[in-house]
Amino acid sequence: MRVAVHCPYSLSVPGGVQGQVAGLARALESRGHQVTVLAPVDERARASGERDIADLGRDVGFVSLGGSVSLRANGSIAAVAPGPKASLRALRALRTGRFDVLHLHEPFAPGASYACLALARVARVGTFHRSGDTALYRVLGPLARWGAERLQVRCAVSPQARSTVAHALGGTYELVANGVDSERFERAQPWPTEGPTVFFVGRHEHRKGLALLLGAFAGIREPGAVLWVAGEGPETEALKRRFAPGDSVEWLGRIGDAEVARRLRGAHVVCFPSLGGESFGVVLLEAMSARTAIVASNLPGYRFAAGGHADLVAPGDLLALRTALRNSLSDALKGTGRSTAEALEAAAAHARCFSMTAIAARYESIYEEAVDLWRSSHNGH
Predict the structure, then answer these.
(1) 2-179+355-373, which class in CATH?
(2) For the domain with range 182-352, which CATH number is right: 3.40.50.300, 3.20.20.210, 3.40.50.1010, 3.40.50.2000?
(3) What is the pTM of this model?
(4) CA nearest to 39, candidates 95, 103, 100
């Protein structure tokens, strides 16, 4: 099939949706489909670790929708392209590409999706990622319900995301979880460590809970324990002033995908202390693929992804987080609890159920359904 995949968020900026779009596009190509990704991309110099657009362009077709602007959304900052130029570029690509299906991720994020829903003459599939916050749907009101009805098939990445969008817009939604490239993390060479090591990777913003993790880790007295902190964000400088770089905290900045995989493999424990706004937990699947013990917040999206293979604590509970980290580090050093070889292998097997290849196969059948529905509605069958 000829598939166009639209990502509303700039591929120059690391993010969950961006990663899913890139991974799905590559998996579909490997299964014999012709895929073109339509997305914003920023031409400014990209720091080490930002998504490499050139690499994506070598693997699949790519059409830039122009640069992005930053907007606050769902407790984070989204890099989107809401202007008319992005819409015109997307429509031009769809008109000349003769695609069988258009796959819209987060169909109501600001950007070209609205023009595609209104004007593109192609079968359309929409995947909804957000959970919890329905402010966007309330603001859009009837426009969002009209747009949802323009989709031949609607999908959601988790039960929480499905509940959020179904409550706001009505309709039925296929549950298609996010995917992970398990083999990439299984093959990674472990990053060397000199003592008990906890790893955090994510955007440094309030909802990711990094300040909570730093406070919890400060009370851990395990000799030689180190916290690796990767990523950056609006809280980085303030947190560095409170928790200065030293023997116990290493501020890594933004690192590339290969180094993330190696550090996941090398760490004794990986921690995801998010306070909310997580509809899924791909990062947990990545850690399981790397065979690393996990401590994370007990959020519905994380719980769904973890499948019982992580230590989950109440969001925002510093003492509970500190206790879980201390216990997980102790288990990892002794090879007990969730850190036994059998427990880590079971977690890796669970992660393989969410392989990107399996997710691509699931979308194949959904695309076929969407095309049949489109043809039926436009040919009078």
Answers:
(1) alpha beta
(2) 3.40.50.2000
(3) 0.85
(4) 103
